[in-house]
Specification:
Length: about 80
């Protein structure tokens, strides 16, 4: 049934924003996406229900090498 369907890969990473001094979860997502001092690029970042959490998803990839390049692109490394 599925033998003719090619397998694909993808990664979804979830991050929580933590206050640098108190180490508490920090509701900062809106300001982070609008700011210019980001660690990660804003492309692909999606806010979650909680303002202290965000998600980043890769594109659909056909092999591990493509997925590795996608992770590098996503993280802006």
């Amino acid at each position: 049934m599925f033998k003719d369907i090619p397998l694909t890969l993808g990664i979804e990473e979830e991050y929580q924003i933590v206050h640098p001094v108190t180490r508490d979860l920090h509701s900062y997502m809106s300001q982070y996406l609008e700011g210019d001092h980001r660690v990660m690029t804003p492309a692909g970042l999606k806010p979650e229900l909680m303002e202290s959490q965000l998600e980043m998803s890769s594109h659909i990839c056909n092999d591990i090498s493509e997925l590795q390049n996608e992770i590098i692109r996503m993280r802006g490394i």
